[in-house]
Amino acid sequence: MKRTLLRAAIFVAVLLVIYGLGVACEAGFTEYVQRIVLLAGINVILAVGLNLINGTTGQFSIGHAGFMAVGAYGAAYVGVQLAPVAHRALGTGAVSNAFSFNLALLAGALFAGLSGLIVGLPSLRLRGDYLAVVTLGFGEIIRILFNNATFLGAATGYFGDDPSGLPAYTTFFWVYAWVALIVVLIHNLTFSQTGRSLTAIREDEIAAEAMATPTTRLKVTAFAISAATAGIAGGLFAHMQAGVRPEDFRFEKSIDMIVMIIVGGLGSISGAILGGIFVAVSLELMRDLQQYRLVLYALLLIVIMIVRPQGLLGRRELYQLFRKRKAGSGLESSR
Amino acid sequence: MTQLLQQIINGLSLGSIYALIALGYTMVYGILKLINFAHGEVFMVGAYTGYYSAGALGISAYEAQHRDFPVYLGLIVLVTAMATAALLGVLIELLAYRPVRNAPRLTPLITAIGVSLFLQNAGMLLFSPNPQRYPAILSEVRFEFFGVIVTNIKLTIFVVALCLMLGLHLFVQKTWTGRAMRALSFNIDAAKLMGIDTDNVIRSTFAVGSALAAAGGILFGLDQITINPLMGVLTGLKAFVAAVLGGIGSIPGAVVGGLLIGLAEQLTAGYLSAEYRDAITFVILILILLLKPEGLLGVVRVEKV
Amino acid sequence: MSLLELRGVDKIFGGLHAVRGVSFAVEKGSIFGLIGPNGAGKTTLFNVITGVYRPEHGEILLAGKDLAGLRPARIAARGVARTFQNIRIFRSMTVAENVMVAGHHLHSASIADAMLRTRRYEQDERALGKRAHELLEIFGLSHLAQEVAGSLPYGSQRRLEIARALMLSPELLLLDEPAAGMNSQEARTLNEQIRFLRDKLGLTVILVEHNMAVIMKVCETIHVVDHGETIAQGNPAEIKVNPAVLAAYLGQEEPNNQARS
Amino acid sequence: MSGPALELSSLRVSYGGIAAVKDVSLSVQRGEIVSLIGANGAGKSSVLKAIVQLVPHAAGSVRVLGKDVRGLASHRVVELGVALVPEGRAIFGNLSVRENLLLGAFLNRDAAAIERNRARSVQLFPRLGERMDQNAGTLSGGEQQMLAIARALMADPKLILLDEPSLGLAPNLVTQIFESIVEIAQSGITILLVEQNTRLALQVAQRAYVLVTGEVALSGESAELRDDPRIREAYLGEAIEA
Amino acid sequence: MRSLRRTFISGICLAAFGAVGCKKSATSTSAGGSTAADRATEIIIGHYASMTGSTAHFGQDTDRGIRLALVEANAKGGVLGKKLRLVTLDDRGDSAEAANAVNRLIDVEKVSAVLGEVASSLSLAGGRVAQRRKIPMISPTSTNPKVTEVGDYVFRVCFIDPFQGKVMATFAHDYLKLTKIAILRDVKNDYSIGLADAFKASFLQMSGNVVAEQAYSQNDTDFSAQVTAIRGTGAQAIFVPGYYSEVGSIARTAARLGLKIPLLGGDGWDSPDLFTIGGDAINGSYFSDHFAPDVATDKAKRFVASFTTEYGQAPTGLGALGYEAAEVLVDAIARAGKVEPTAIRDAIAHTKDFEGVTGKITMDAHRNPLKSAVVLKIEGGKAKFETSIAP
Q: What is the topology classification, in CATH, of domain C1-79+170-261?
C-alpha cells in the first residue's frame, strides 16, 4: 500500500513539474521556440520507440514513418468523431478535450500497433537488410494508401470538418506527459526479462532460441510496441499540425528517425532522447541554408556512420557514462 | 488486345531499363552483401552526364535544324556517361563504403542511404530541381503494327540493353576480372588465396555496375522524355526489387526480375490504377521475400551454426 | 524408457549426406559421449536434436515424445539445453544477464507487469536473480556477475555458457566441445563439473568432445560416428580398442605399409 | 634464395582478445614435407591463416620464402609463391572445375603454363579430367579436395600449406590424396601439412610439430614421433595409457 | 577511457557542425534574425517554400518572382520610405517544417507579412500559424478553397479550383463542343485533384461524359500506361490539370502512341518548360491562365522582360503569381500607411482593381481574388489567346 501511495505521489509530482515547465515555456519562449520544444518531444517519443526494435532487438526498420502516419490519421479521425460525443457527455471544457484527445491518441496507437503486428508477423522472419527493405516497402505502401484514401482527404490531407483544422490539443503538458510515460515504460521494458531477451535476440538469435526464448513472439511484440509508440507520436503530431497529410510521412521522415537513434547510439534510451532533440534542433538551425541544408544533413549522416557508427553513447545510458567503467569492458568492441 | 500488347511492349522497355540498373545492385550485393542505395543516384548522374555531354556536342543545333544527331556522337555520349558513372561508383565505394566494410552489416546500409540523400540534394543544386527535356540523341521514328506502336527508341532500348547484358555476361564468364568477381561472390577469403586483389575486384564491380546504370539513365531519358534529380529514387528502388525478385547475386535473375517488374508496373497502371503502380512493386518485394527469399533464380544458402 | 532416443536420423545438405541413419538411446542420468573425427556429423546431430535443423528422416524422442518439427525454443523449453562449439554467449550483456535470459520459466510476469514494475514482476525478478547467482556460484563466476560477458577469458566464457544452459532447468544437457581451448588443468576441473551436474543435479549429459581425456574419464557410454554414420558404441574400455575407431582417429594403415609395429 | 621456405617465430594469433595461437615457432626447409598435428582447437588452422595473413598475427614473425609478411595483403603473400589449401576445401561452387583451376592460375596467366599445370592436375587426379566442365559445387567431397589441391598447384607455388586434406573423406580417397601429396613433394614443392590423422601425417612427413592449446608441445623427426606415446596422449589423452 | 574520449570528440564534431550551421545562417544575406535597428529602416517580408525536396522547383520558381517584385519595389525607393527585405525559409515540402518556418519568420525574423506556399496543404499548415499569430499571409498559388477559410488573415492571388474547373468545363463543352473527355490527374498534388474534381463536376452538370479517369504521381516520368488506356476510350480530349513538369511528357507520350487529341489544362501549365518538353506534341492543346502573353498589358510585358533579364529564362505561372502576391502585399503596405500586421491585413482585404501582371485583382469577402480567366491555345511553341470565358 505504501508503495502504491509513493508511486502515486511521484506520478503527481512529475505531472506538476511538467505542468510548471509548460507554463514557464509558454511564458519564456516565443511560439517558434515552443514549437521546436514540442517537436523535440515528439521526436523523443519516436526515437525511443524505434530504438526498441532497431537498437535493443537489432531488427532494422527503415519505414517507421508509415506507423507514425497510421497513428496520426487514426488519432485525427477518431478525435474528430469523438469530440461531439465527449462534448455532450462532459461539456466543452478542458476535461472533455483532454478526454477525447487522449482517447484519440490511444486509438491512434492501437491502429499503429495493429499495423505493426500485421507488418511484423510475416516479415520478422527476415533478417537485417532484407527486413529493412520490407519495412521501407510497407512504409511506402501505407503512404500510398493514405494518398488515395478520399475519405481522409487524399493528397490534401485530413483536417477534420472545421476549416481551421483539428483542434490544437498538443500542448507542452501533453507532449511531455507522454514523453515521460513512454520513456519510463520503455525503459522498464528494456531493463526487464523481456528486454534481456530482446537484447539476446540482437546478440545471437540462434543462442537465444536455444535458451527457450520465444524469439518470433518477442520480436513481433517489440515491433508492435514500437509501432504503437510511433502512433502516439503521430497523434500528437497531427494535433500540433492541426492536420495530417500523406506527404509528411515520406521515406525522409523514416530517415530522420534513423538519424535520431544513430546519433545518440543504437540501443541506448538516453541516446535516443538526445538524438530526438538533436534532429529537431539541428534541422532548425540549418533551415536558412536552404538548398544546402539537406546536402549537409546527408553528409552528417555519412560522417557519423564512418567516424562513430555506434553513436555518441554507444549502447550505454547517459548515467552509465559517469560510472566507473570495468577494466577491459567489451561494450565498445562488441557489435 | 491491341491495348494489352501495347502495355506489354511499354512494360518490357521499362523493364529492360530496370534490368540494366538491377545488374549493378545484384553484382554489388553478390560480393559485399550491401544494398547500394546510392545506385539509383548513380543512374541519375549517368542520365545527366548524357544530357550535358550531348549539349556539349552541340545537339541543340541539330535539333533546331531537325537533323539527326550522328550515331557516332551518340555513342560518345553513351561512353562518356558510362565512364563518368563508373568513376562516381568507384569514388562512392572508396569514400563511403570501404571505411565501413568491416562494420556491422547495417552500418553500410545507413551510409548508403546517406550517400543517396547526398547525391539527390547535390543533384538538385547542380542540375536544378526542374525536370529537363532529354535531348533527341535519337530522332523518333514510329512503326505501327495493327494499332500497336513501336518506336525506334523502344527498339534501341531493347537492343542496347540486350547488347550490354550480353557484354556483361561475356565479361563475367570469360575475363579474369569477371571470374574473380564470381569467385569473390562465392567466398572472399578463398579468392584472396588465389592471389586476387579483392579491393581491386570490388572497385571493378562498382565501376561496371555504375556504367550499366548510366547506360540505363540515357535510355531512360530517351524513353521517358524528361529527367530530374530525383528520378533515381523510385527507379532505383524498383530496380533493387527486380534484383531481389530475380534472386540477388544472379545476373540472369536481375534481367528476368527487371522485365517482370516493368510488366507488373505497366499492367497495374493500365488496368488497375496508376495510383498503385509504385505500390505493386513493394507488394511484389514483400511477397517474394516472404515466399521465396532467394528469388526466382537465386540459390539457397544454409546458415552455418 | 530412455530419456532421448534417435531412430534412423538422416540429415542432408544439398548433396552432402551429413548424418546417415544414426540411432542411439541415452539413458536418464547417464553421461553419453558422442565422438568422431572432424566433420563426422556430431555438431549436425546436436543441431538436429535441438531443432536448429530439421532431419530428412528419422525420429527424435524425448522421454518417448517426438520432437519432430518443433522450433528450437520449444525444444529448449521441454528441457533440452545446449552449449555451442564456437561459444555463443551474448557478448555485450553482463554475465548475470546472460544467465537470466534463460530463465523464462521462472518469470511469469507479463510485459505489462514489467513496464509497470508491479510487485509480481519484482518477485519474479528477484527469484531469477537468485537462481542465476546460485548457478554462477557453482561455476565460480559469481564475482564476475556484473562484468560484460564478452570481456571474459575463454575458459570462463565456456563455463558461462554451461551455467546459462542450466538456467533452463533442463533434464538433458548437450555440451559441444566444452573442453576446446582448455589446458589440462582446466579440463580436469571441467570433468569434475560435468560429474557434479549429473550426480548432484541429476542431469543427463551428452558430450561432444575431442579431448579424449575428458571423454574417456567421464562418459559411461560412447557413440562414435564417422562420415555421418555410426561406427561403434560401447564403454570407454571397448571404444579404446575398437579397430574401427582407431582407424577413424589415427588413420587407416596404408595397405602396402608394414612399418608400424 | 636460400634459407628455410617458411619460418615462424613466437607467433601469436588472437581473436577478440582470446589467443588461439599462443607461441609457435617452427621452420620448414625447402623441399621438405612437415606436418603440424594436434587435436581440434589446438590452433593449427590459425597458424596457416596467419601465414597467408588471412588473420593478422598479434606478435611474433612470419617469414615466407625469406620475406617478412607482416601487414601484407593476402594476395601479396600468395604472390610470393605460397598456396593455402584451406580446411573445408573452399572451392568455388558456383564455377566449373575448369574455372576453379583457372582462378588458381590468377597470378600466372601464361597460357602454356596453364595448360601444363592443368595437364598435371589431370594426371594427378584423373577424376578431375572427367569433370572439367561440371559445376564444382556438384563434386563429391573427395573430388573437391582434389580440385582444391590441383587449384593450388596452378600458380606453380614453391610452398603449399594443406589444411586437413583428409577431413570428412572416405579412407580410400584419403589414401589417394596422400599419395598425390607425396608426389607433389617429389616435384620439389615444399609442403606444410596440417592434419589430425596422425598416422598418415607422420607417414608422409619428414618432420612434425605437435600443437597443444596454441603451443608447440612436441616436435621432431616423424619416425621418432610415430612411436612416441605422447602423441597418443595428445589425441586420446591419458586414456590410452590408463 | 578510449571510448570516452571518442564520445567526447564526436560530441565536439557535432557541436562544431551545429556551429557551422549557425554561423552560415548569420552571414547569409537572406536571413538570420533582424535587429530593431533593421526594422526601423526595413520592412521584412517572409516567404516559406519548398526550396528542397521533390517540389523544390515550384518553391524556387515562386521565390524568384517574389524576389524580383521586391527588388523592383526597392529600386523605386521602397515603401513608406523603408526598404523591403525578403527572408526565405525552406520547408522541404513538409507541413511540420512549414509551420516551423512561419513561426520562425514571425518570432525570429519579425516579419510583417508572410508569402507562401505552393501546395494547398502546406499553405493550410502555415496559414493556421499566421492566422493565430495575426500576421497576414498571401498564398501565391494555393488553389484549394479551404486555404482562405482558415481565417481572415489568409489571402491568395490565384484562382480557386471550382472557378478554374468550371472555366475549362465550359470551354470544352460550349466552345470546343466536346462531349467525351478523359481526365488524367496527379494524385500526389492537391491542386491537380481539386481542379480535376471541379472540372468533372461542372462537365457532368453540362451533361458531358467523362469516359476515362487515369492518374499519375508528381515526378512520375512514365505515362504510357495511362495514355494507352485512354487511347481505347474514344475520348475527344484529355483534361490534364497538372504542372508543366509532367504535362510536356504526357503530350509527347500521347503523340508517340498515336493519340492525336488535344490536351486541356489549367494555369499549372504556364511555363516555358512546357514548350521545350512538349515540343510539337503539345501544339493544339488549350489551358486556362490569368493573361495571354500576346495580348498582355504593358505591365505584364515588362514583367516578362525583367524576369528574363534577371534569371535568364522566362517566368513560369508560379513565378508570375509569386510576383503578383508580392506586389499586392507591397501595395497594401503602402495603402496601410504603417508597417503593422493588422493594418496590412485590412489593406489587403480592401485591394480593389489592383493592376497586377496577371490582370486586375479585387479581393472578395472570402479573401479570394476576383479575376477573369483566359483560355490559351498552344501553337508553334507559344501560347496564344483563344477566348475569354466568363463562367
A: Rossmann fold (3.40.50)
